[in-house]
C-alpha cells in the first residue's frame, strides 16, 4: 500500500490459501488531475470491505504501475468490484488517467514469505 509515513516498505504477508488476488497493471496519461485524491480515497474505501487482506503497490521509473489487492474470498472481491465509488473511479480512470491497463484476477493456491532477521 502507498506508504507516506517514512516507515520502510514491506510486502503484504503471506496468507493461508486459498484467497484471491487482483493484479492491476497500468500506464498513466500525462493528465492526472484528481488522481492522487481519488487513489487515496480508494485505498481508504477498500479497507472497509469485509475480507480485504491488504494491498501492495509498485511504480517503475518507466511509468508502469502495479497494484495487487488481496481478498479472502470471491465475495469480498465482488463487493469491491461493485462498490459505487470504485465504479465511478474506474470511469474516470478510463476517461482521463490511464493510457492502458490490465486486470488479472487469480485464486492463490500456495503462499509463503520470508523476512530477514535483523541484528540486534
UniProtKB/TrEMBL annotation:
The ABM domain is annotated at 18-91
GO MF terms listed in the record are: monooxygenase activity
Among its keywords, does the record have Transmembrane helix? Answer: no
Which keywords, in A-to-Z order, does the entry hold?
A: Monooxygenase, Oxidoreductase
- Which top-rank group of organisms is this from? Bacteria
- Pfam family example for this protein? ABM
Q: What is this protein called?
A: Antibiotic biosynthesis monooxygenase
- Organism the protein comes from: Streptomyces palmae
